[in-house]
Structures are given as C-alpha cells and as structure tokens.
Protein 1
Amino acid sequence: MRKTTRKSWAVAAGVAGIALLATACSSGNGGGSSSETKTANPDEKVTLKIQTFNEFGYKDLYTEYMKLHPNVTIVDDKADKSDTARANVETAISTGTVTEDIVAADVDWMPELIDHSDFFADLGSIGASRWPDWKAKQATDSSGKLIGAGTDSGPEAICYRKDLFQKAGLPTDRDKVAALLGSWDEYFATGEQFMNSPAGKAGAAWFDSIGALSQGMINQLEAPFEDPSSGKITVLDANSPAKAVYDQLTSDKVLKQSAHLGQWTDPWTKAFTNDTKGAWATQLCPPWMTQIIAGNAPDQKNWDVAPVLPGGASNWGGSFLLVPKDGKHVQAATDLANWLTDPAQQAKVFVQYGNFPSAVAATTDATVTAKTDTYFGGAPTGKIFSDRFAAVAHQPFRGAHYFPINDALGKAYTRVDVDKTDNAANSWQKFETDVKNLS
Amino acid sequence: MATTSSPSVPDTVTDDQGGRQRRRVGFSQKLGRLDVKLSPYLYISPFFILFAIVGLFPLLYTAWVALHQWSLLDGEGGWVGLENFKHVLTQQYFWTGLRNTISIFLLSSVPQIIIALIIAAILDANLRARTFWRMGVLVPYVVAPVAVALIFRQLFGDPTGWVNEVLSWVNLGPVRWGSAVLPSHIAIATMVNFRWTGYNTLIFLAAMQAIPRDLYEAAIIDGASRVRQFFSVTIPMVRPTMIFVIITSTIGGLQIFDEPRLYSQTGDGGADRQWMTVTMYIQELGWRNQNFGRAAAVAWLLFIVILIIGLINFAFTRRISSERTKAPKRKKVRA
C-alpha cells in the first residue's frame, strides 16, 4: 500500500512538472499561434478580456455586444485606478506576456506605449478619420501606425460659481463670463478684481491651485517639455515656454488668487462644500470634471459652465483602447474596440455616463448636443463641450518622458502653492534636479 | 521487482547464515545511517528550496540588475558597473528617504514597545473580563491598513482635520500635517502604532504570563511596590521577548511602505518628499522613472542598511542576554 502511494505521488509530481514545462512553453509560443486563430471562422467561441480603469461606462455596451455576437464572451477586468492599469500594461510589455485582449490607456501615458508600438496591433483598419487629427496623433507612432482607438476626450471649459461672481459684482451669465475670460491675462486681471471684492475679502479664492491651471496652460503649448523631432528634453532650456508659464503662475499676483488646495487631495474634495470661505470661484472644466464637481458637492446649486478657455481651446485627458498584437484573438478584439469607439456607442456613453466622445461624428450627434445638465443650472453642456471640442486645433507634443516631467512639475507647483515649503526659485531648482535624474 | 527476488536468496544459501546476516545488517545499517544523516536535511529542504527560489535568487538577480542600465520596458541596456550606486548615493533623495525612514521608524517603534509593555503589564494583572480586554487590544490589528490610512488621513487633515480642530480648542495653531516634515512623520507613526501596539502587547503578555508567580510573591514579601515589581521582575524576565519584538519591528520599520504611501491621495510621499521612505523611492525610480537599474541599487543599499542595523541589534542582544544570565545569579544570592 505504502509503496503504491509513494509511486503515485512520484507520478503525480512528474506529471505536474511536465505540465508546468508545457504551460511555460505554450505561453512563450503565444505569438506564433495567434496567426492561426486570426483567420479562424467568425462564429468560433471567443472570450475577450478587456482592462479599463475608473469608469468607461461600458457595462451595458458589453451586454449589447454579446447579444449581437453570441459567440463572444467579454470579461471585464476593471483596474481600480489608472496607475494600476498603467503598471499592468507596462509589466505586460516588459515581460512580453499578453493577458488582456484589449487594454485601455490614458493619454498621459500613451507616449510610453507609443515608444513600444511593436507590442500593439495596427488599428489602421478602423480608420484614423473617425477622430480629429490631434486625437489620432496621440495614438500614432513615428511610422504612422495607429495603435489606439480613442474613447473619450476632455475639451476644456470654465466652471464657475454664480453666487460668488454675483457677490463680487461680476456678471453671472454664461456668455458674459466667457467674454470676460478670453485670455490668461484677462483671467488673472478678473481674478485680482475678484480678490479685492467682498467675495474675495470674505475668504473666497479665484481658483483652487496653480497646479490645476498649469494643466490647462501647458496643454496649450506646442512642445512643452521635449523637442518633437529629436525627443530631447528641452524644458530646462533658457527659452523654455514651460518656464514662462511657471514664472507667471508662481508670481505673487497669481498666488494671491489661489485657494492653496492641491487637486485630488482630501481637503480639496471636502472644500467643494464650502460656502464662501475656503471656496473658489472658477475651475478648469473638461466634461469629466463636471461629474467630479457634482459628486463632491451635490447640494451646491450655484455651479455653471462658461463656454471658454483662457488662451484658446484645449483638451485635458482622454483615453484609448489598445489591442496587444500577440493576443489570442486579435481580430475579434479589434472588432470590439472598433464597435466600442464607434460614434453611435460613444454618444450612448455620453448620454448615460457623461464621458465626452472623441469621435467627430459623435460630438455633433443630436443626442449629444441636446444634453443639458440640471446641476449646472440647466447649462447645455452637450452643446458647450461640442463647440469646445470643435475648436481644439492641436495638442502638445508628448515624448517618452512626458509623464514623469509633468509629475515633477506638478510637485514643483505644490511646493510653492500648497505646502509653501519652497519659494518659486528653489522649487524650480528641485524640479531641475528631478528632470536631470530622468536621463 | 528487487524486493520480490531478494527473499529467494536465503532459500538457496542456507549454509552461510553468518555471512548472510552480516551482509544484510551491513546494508540496512548503511541505509539507516544514510537515513539518520540525510533525512533531517530532506525534511527541512522544502523551506530552503523555496527560499532559494523566492529569496536568494531575487536577491542576487537584483544585484545583477543594479550593475546594469536597465529600463522597465526595454530591459537590459548594458553593463555600467557601480554607476547606479554612485548616482543614487550622490543624490539627495536617497538620503532624504533614509532620513524619513529612520525618523518614522524611531517615532513608531520606540513608543510602541514602551506602550505595549505597559498595557501588557496592566492586562497581566487580575482584571475583570480579562479575555475581553485582551481581545480588545488586538482589534486595531485586524483593521485593514487601507482603512486605517483613510481614517487617519481624515484625522490629520490639513488644515481642517479633526486633530487640528481639537488643537484649536486649546488655542494651538493648525499643525501642517500634510506638508511639514516632522508632523507628517508623527501622523504616519501614529498610524503604525495604532496597528501594531496591540500585536506587540499580546506577545509581551504571553511572555509575562510565563513568569513564575513566586518571583512576585518574594518581591511583595520584600516590600516591593507595583512599579518596583514591574522594573525589577517583569522587565528583566521578558527581555528575550523584547529582543524578538525589537528585531521584528526594526525590519518592518525600515521597510515601511503602506502607511506613508496611503498617507496622501497621490501616494508620492509629498511634493517635497517630506515622508517619502526608501521603499517608496525604489518604487518611484523603478515604475515612474522606469529605471530598474537605479531602483535595484537602492534596494541593495536598503538591504545593507538593514543588515547593519541588524548587526547592531545583534550586539545589543548579546549584551542583554549576558545581563540576563547575571540577573538570576544575583537573585539567588539575595534569596
């Protein structure tokens, strides 16, 4: 008896070992077998794993797609936040393993993925003309290969508090506010006026933090951090346009208008419920920010949206769907990405969840432009953001170091504005060290 | 097969019993000796095999990575020797990280062990509903670290958290928990203490329960007060346990990551790296800057730091344990 059990254990161990080896080999050969399944018959049962983050608003669409394509099963692998998704994708690239058939990526870390565009399938079959040039460009590598299908976008407007504007003796009508804030100089001049008004004296600020404004101003530059042709880091050069933005934002005049609350921190989130003291009057507002404001202060009924961005239309944020080239069902995954980013679906997501589309046809869709938002005083947010979207002409060049440089710049602003641990010059020096450490 | 054929041998060779026996004994003895010598190693081998795979190999591989230019996405990029170490050591950030780590470690471990000792001594006394109190101290340990971090982030909110609110009642200005160096360390250390004090208390309590009661009786007869008993009987008797607690909390304290990372929304240790620990620096180098070579170099430097502090601990241990052997001697004389 004992002998047989021992023997069977040995057999079991041997089998397990062989199985381990076999799986190890098969995962290594994943790339080779994909070409066979690519041409397999379209009714074959496939399971597609898709990794998104935050809220893409795809739950109902998955169900709809599976009904349209009974052979397809979609597995929703939602990461808790964008950082986790980024880490997952980059681990996949660095180890050459494919676990997801579709991965979502934020525009901020697209440059790093474009640097490894070999890892992803060419989505050129979807057609880059679905998106405006600037959006398609964010997902196109240097050889012209489109690796990402654009999902949402973030055309910026200005959200403002009507009650605080009224208290300060400023106009409260959307278009009049827009006329007041055409350029950054006008924006800061109005801010100065606001700070000297009863509202400002009662403890209200003009904006939340200079770091938040920087997001808007940096996105208006052609090439904020790196040289588009060589990819060399230029942000520390003498004539760096980002430094000019930095100097303007850290000037005493502008700092005085800040509420000194770092974006996304707990105090910032809580401060949305403040009435006057500790509140701020204006906020850079891509469509997704309207959801955040409404979520942070559900009882505040004075927010409104003005169809303007000082310094010209620009975009903040937005995501893409990418298909790893060595996945098991590249064709089926491409079809799903194509369908999910189709204008009709993008419009549905906007109406239900508020994620603003990036496909040109969707932004002019009647269901999109007709949408109004009761939280923002019944503002025609669909129409406003559609116009803001149409006005975006270009987006800044983002090289492989965009993400860490932008992160370090954000910290530089926080040191001056929120933490007040450094003055502007010191903080810039620390930023210089950070950037030099990247190479 | 071999076992079925061997019994047939004695049947044919019946005349030479002695030789057969000798041969048999020789073989089984050999086996037995092998069994005695080898099997202990076989029994403990699973741990060491596992350790070699998940402990030793990563350690050596990290050293290998540290000597190369190594990018997160592109992999190995050529041999650079000690360049990564040189770069990291000449950088201020590594030292900032080390300062923060040691500061948070001291602010958490020292009060933690003192408080745990005191609570354990109280719990060791004859209390009503003893089990209830003993379970009570372990409750914070059961709470998930993320939940603890969320709660403490609210408490230490800057400038409008509860702690600042309470401080304002006694006219103390708002403390900048979220941007000043020392206050942020205190806040994080409080988080650590909240979680681990109860755990250490129970370990101390177990040690205290093992102290022979007659020692206390003798002390009482000698007229020792409660406090005197605590310092002269309890503390000397739990010394070995204290050494264990100090060593484990040193290792844990120097690798501190969860609490400082969860202390702010962004998890970057502060805009000016006010509470960025060494482990957080490793993560930043490796995953944000995508420079695995430098991250590996810092990981090895941290390993060396822990080793050094471990050796200091060891020296202490030896001193304390030699003191311990002296202590009972003295007692004998006294008795």
Note: Confidence is low (pLDDT under 50) at residues 1-16, 327-335 of chain B.
Protein 2
Amino acid sequence: MIGVVDYGMGNLRSVQKAVEFLGGRAVVSAQPADLNGCDKLILPGVGSFGAGMENLERTGLAAYVTRRAADTPVLGICLGMQFLLEESEEGGVFRGLGLIGGRVVPFTQGKIPHMGWNAVSDMRSALFAGIPDGTQFYFVHSYYADVLREDTVGVTEYYRTFASAVSRGNVYGVQFHPEKSGDAGLQLVRNFMRL
Amino acid sequence: MISKRLIPCLDLKDGRVVKGVNFVSLTDAGDPVETAKLYNAFGADEIVFLDITASYRGESPMWNVISRASEQVFLPLTVGGGMRTTEDFRRMLACGADKIAVNSAAIKHPSLITEAAMKFGRQCVVLAVDAKRNEAGRWDVYLNGGRVKTDLDAIEWIRRGEQLGAGEILLTSMDRDGTRAGYDLELTRLASEAVGIPVIASGGAGKMHDFYDVLTEGKADAALAASLFHFGIIRMSDLKKYLAERGIPVRTEEDVYGKH
C-alpha cells in the first residue's frame, strides 16, 4: 500500500489514480494511523513552499515523514520534492525537511513557469529502471532545486542545468510530474512501487 | 531544452465529442475518454477538453468526463467552457483536471484569475482569448464563444491577464479558426512577446508547415488543433517527426514500456 501524504493542498488524486491504474493500492491521508500501514510514502506537490511546509509542520507530518524515511521509501513529486531540501527562497526563506542537501531558488530566465516536456539525463537511480536516458517528462514549476552533486540522480536543462531527480538513502524526489508524463511517468511510478 | 507542445482539442457537447473523431480504432467515436486515450497513445503532449455549450451549472457531464479521463490518461488535462467561479476550479481540479481555461468569466470578472491563482497556483489558470483582427490592424477580444465583441484589445488583455495571475495563454484567432489557412503568426508573435508565460496558438492549422511556422516565427510555446487531428488529416507522429527533422524540439516517446 502506498500512502499519499495529504497536507491539505492541491490535487492529490492524480498520483493515487496512477498507482491504481498500475494495479497498486494507494490511500490519501493526513493521519499517521492510515499512513503507518503503508510500505511507501508519496509526498505530492502543488501550491507554494511556505504554506505547504507550514501545513506539514502544524500537522506533525513533517516529523512523521522524516521519521518514516529512515526505513521507508519516500517519493517527493514537484513541490513535494522541494520539501525534501534544506530550504527554499519561494516567497521568503523557509526551512524544508533537510533530507536532501540543497536549496530551492527561482528561475530567472526564460518563460516562467517552466511548463511542458523536457528531457531528464544523467539518470542514475532505480527510479529510472527501463527508462532511456534523455526521456522527456512533464514539468510545471517556477523554482528549481540547487542540489548537492551526490544527491542528484537526474538533470534537466532550462536556461541552466538543474536537478530534476534527487535521491539519498530511502528518499527520492522528482521535479517533474510522473503522474502526468505518459508511459514513461507510469514506468517511474511502477519502479517506485517495486522498490 | 523544453519541447514545443502539440495539443489536440476535444470539443464536447453534453459530454460527447462533437464533429466525431473518425479513427477506425475507436469503438465509440463520441466518447471523450476513449478519444483521449488514443491521443495519449499517439503521443499528444496534453489534451484540452472544451465544453462548447458552456452553459451548464451544477450537474454537467463534464465533471464525470474529466474524472474518468484522469483515471486512464496520464497527461496534463485542461478543461475549458463554463468555468465561472473558484468553486468550479476546485471541483474540476479535484476531478483530475490540471488546468482550467477561463474566457468570458474572466472578462466579466477579472478578479477570478487572481483568486484562482492565489488558491490553486497560477500554473492551473489558463486565460483563453478569442481574438479577431479589426480595421485598425489590432485585435479585438470576443466573448461568449466569439459571439460578442468587447472593448478589449487582445494584446493588452493578454498582458493584463498575466499580471492578474494567469499562468498560460490559449490564444485563438477567430479569423483563422476553421479556415486551415495557417495560424495568425503576427497575432501569436505579438502575444508571445508581450508576456513571460507560455502561449498556446489556436485556429487555422491546415498543414504540417503551419505548425512549424507558428512555433518559430509565431514564437508559440504550443500549438493546438482539433479537426485536423480528429479527421486524421495530420497524424501526431508524422507531425512530430516533421518538426523534429526541422530542428523543433518535440517529445517523441520511444515505445519501450509496452502497452497497457
């Protein structure tokens, strides 16, 4: 069972629908009682960093996810990936979960948001099993993650090179939306389910 | 390098695709979900569902269409037509839509753009603009599906839409729509240069080179078409190959994942 962490923002159902489409089961919940039974957690993401982290802190989910990450695979998606980092400059400076080394900073060039399909290369993670290097995924974001090299497991070019996939231990994150990236995205979700 | 997007638009009436899509592989040519699944297989980058009746309140088949589509089609889904309030946004996003296109409602109540962007993020607010060239060589904005002329200048309205919080512009040339004479390159280029958010060009595609033109000279970030794709006049895969050969970045997905 996959637990989709509900921190009160955005559309969390798409991730759940992708898991179910692949034959898995997923529960969307903010309650540790529900999430305790899950062998994997997904931290989805839509909204702003500050408001999202505030919700995660206030509900205790920040501490919960950090604790579970010691022995449970956790996948952050888009803003959910950004929460994994140390801090973000979106709308001020906010602390993140600090599970991945790096910070979130704004794009300054090109059309913003970076919206559309873009290639992920230098893939080095089990998340990308069976997915050719350079495959395109669907992105929507105005801030990007400036991440430690050793935690970066995929990069993308948009006026600069940024970390589009990150990983450290049980913690994984992707800046793109696998649940909106067609067959390649479903393959990534399947890979996570099989970890 | 970000890819240019190719977007089929499904025009819906009472929850059914109008001007039916005549692919032989479709068992039900009027079912928007079946049609969307097929476009996913063909390599569409995104799908727009447009309710052309746009008159519903409450019990519309659109909620169910999007809910079903999002269970089977894992692409960005945009919904337009009749979305009037942030509650409509909330409900449609909860059904599985990723973006909501607003047109007439945003003209009548520009604060809708701002409120929706604040609540749900600007990435899900698409400002749809129907523009028609006037005698002065500018473009007027029309509402109610192109039936009513407004006093708004299209380029000014697009610029204002961005300031209000729109995350993307869906720009339709009423002069070119349905003509297959090519996109309005000048209009599209002026709009794209006026804002820092993506612009989707719509109206007039007739041949593959029209897409090339609007994505280069027209500076569009994406190109939308309806009947051209539906009637199989241009195949998505052929079009992507054509554009890629001419140096346009497009998404071509290798078939390495097997079929579902």
Note: The domain at 2-194 of chain A is CATH 3.40.50.880 (Rossmann fold).
